UniProtKB/TrEMBL annotation, chain A:
The keyword Calcium does not apply. Residues 10-103 form the Intradiol ring-cleavage dioxygenases domain. It is an enzyme of class 1 (oxidoreductase). GO terms for molecular function: protocatechuate 3,4-dioxygenase activity. Keywords: Dioxygenase, Oxidoreductase. The keyword Oxidoreductase applies. Its EC number is 1.13.11.3. It comes from Paractinoplanes aksuensis. InterPro entries: Intradiol_dOase_C (IPR000627), Intradiol_dOase_core (IPR015889), Intradiol_RC_Dioxygenase (IPR050770), Protocat_dOase_a (IPR012786). Belongs to the intradiol ring-cleavage dioxygenase family. This is Protocatechuate 3,4-dioxygenase subunit alpha.
From TrEMBL, chain B:
One of its GO terms (molecular function) is protocatechuate 3,4-dioxygenase activity. SUPFAM superfamilies: Aromatic compound dioxygenase. NCBIfam families: protocat_beta (TIGR02422). The gene is pcaH. Residues 83-111 form the Intradiol ring-cleavage dioxygenases domain. Keywords: Dioxygenase, Oxidoreductase. InterPro entries: Intradiol_dOase_C, Intradiol_dOase_core, Intradiol_RC_Dioxygenase, PCDO_beta_N, Protocat_dOase_b. This is Protocatechuate 3,4-dioxygenase subunit beta. Belongs to the intradiol ring-cleavage dioxygenase family. Gene3D superfamilies: Aromatic compound dioxygenase (2.60.130.10).
Length: 179, 241
């Protein structure tokens, strides 16, 4: 069965998609909160000021959140999902918790990237730094692997996204999207 | 300046070259040039959260957000329409109680957005954004205004066919879809690099709604039907709860 093609979000997605608190999976200043942030770059290394990033993650125990309330947050429930737009420098940030994973697995954030100029959304993973084996990371050349691993900072994690060119981020497809 | 004839030639050269999904590298759409990934996508088996989609519920959304004609104090200008359809997964199952978001230009082809410089009038009674949850059969319904075509700067005299932007979720993360719905018979289809970035003609047709008189509301609004098929899910039935 064929499925509907994607189309670019275009330049005016701010009208319909971002919403207040979209980037606050936990309130800023939450005792266990971290900032996951970075910049989105184009093929010439310029920040992309009209990108939209969605974040989807397990809770710290590795459970997949099933609670509603990502759009109207109550300030207590961890829904595991957020959305934010890049600013004029191509920078985005989320306030969230560190994801967990099943024992022996490497935790990651599932990330979706949209932008004017991208004809379709892109999927990627932002892994926590660590030593656990991982089927995806272990199958990549080192220079590709590093594009999927966040850098630990004093108060959070850095994850830059390079749409094109040097240091191009590894973007993912899944079996049921095979062309 | 690139002319429409130049773009038409580029579109013609790439016709049929890209399969049923849009080409990521599609030069006729100029702003894609520095933004498309040059490497092949890396295929991976989904795991963990990728096997699930976020949940949205009644607490996230008010019913009136599905009616874009009542967001301001007065009636918006333009042709009132109903847009309805079913969201299905790649195996034909309805996607129930899931979020659908839309945004669009007003009847004059102008967005409620500071970066829209098209000198067509804003309508103080039309913002152009809405959301709803699908019902138990996967059905969504929006009341809105038929959007106008609008010019953009891709090339000289470039115009987008009238469209409504749609954002959809499935039951797993991998089904996420943002796309655009078009209206039947638009004379701008052949000229539009965004619509044509899907180079397969049959796949493009999946983006076009059909007029449906059974959806038309007497004395009120014209009806359009647009069903949306997402890609397949990766969870096995045992994991469904
Ligand atoms: Fe648009």
């Amino acid at each position: 069965m064929s499925f509907a093609p994607g189309q670019t979000v275009g330049p005016f997605f701010h009208l319909g998609l971002p919403y207040e608190g979209g980037n606050l999976l936990v309130p800023a200043g939450h005792p266990d909160g971290v900032r996951l942030h970075g910049r989105v770059f184009d093929g010439q290394g310029a920040g992309v000021p009209d990108a939209l990033i969605e974040l989807w993650q397990a809770d710290p125990s590795g459970q997949v959140p099933r609670a509603t309330g990502s759009i109207r947050r109550d300030g207590y429930t961890f829904t595991g999902w957020g959305r934010t737009q890049t600013d004029g420098d191509g920078h985005y940030w989320f306030s969230t918790l560190l994801p967990g994973a099943d024992p022996g697995r490497r935790p990651f954030f599932a990330v979706t990237v949209f932008a004017r100029g991208l004809t379709d959304r892109l999927f990627t993973r932002a892994y926590l730094p660590g030593d656990e084996p991982d089927p995806l990371l272990d199958g990549l050349e080192p220079d590709r692997r590093v594009t999927l691993i966040t850098t630990r900072e004093e108060r959070g994690l850095l994850f830059d996204i390079h749409l094109q060119g040097e240091g191009e981020t590894v973007f993912l497809s899944y079996p049921r999207q095979a062309r | 300046m690139t002319t429409q004839a130049d773009i038409n030639r580029e579109i013609a050269e790439l016709r049929g070259s890209g399969g049923p999904q849009p080409r990521r590298d599609y030069p006729p759409y100029r702003s894609s040039m520095l933004r498309y990934p040059t490497r092949d996508l890396h295929q991976v088996d989904p795991e963990g959260v990728e096997l699930w989609a976020p949940c949205f519920g009644a607490a996230d959304i008010d019913d009136h957000e599905a009616d874009l004609t009542v967001q301001r104090s007065g009636e918006p200008l333009g042709e009132r329409i109903v847009v309805t359809g079913r969201v299905l997964d790649g195996d034909g199952r309805p996607v129930r109680h899931q979020l659908v978001e839309i945004w669009q230009a007003n009847a004059s082809g102008r967005y409620w957005h500071q970066r829209d410089q098209h000198p067509a009038p804003l309508d103080p009674n039309f913002i152009g954004a809405g959301r709803c949850l699908t019902d138990g059969d996967g059905v969504y319904t929006f009341q809105t205004i038929k959007p106008g075509a609008y010019p953009w700067r891709n090339h000289d005299n470039a115009w987008r066919p009238a469209h409504i932007h749609f954002s959809l979720f499935g039951t797993d993360f991998t089904q996420r879809l943002v796309t655009q719905m078009y209206f039947p018979g638009d004379p701008l289809f052949d000229l539009d690099p965004i619509y044509q970035s899907v180079t397969d003609a049959k796949a493009r047709e999946m983006l076009v709604a059909s007029y449906d008189h059974s959806v038309t509301a007497p004395e009120r609004s014209l009806g359009y039907r647009w069903d949306i098929i997402l890609s397949g899910t990766h969870r096995t039935p045992l994991e469904e709860s």
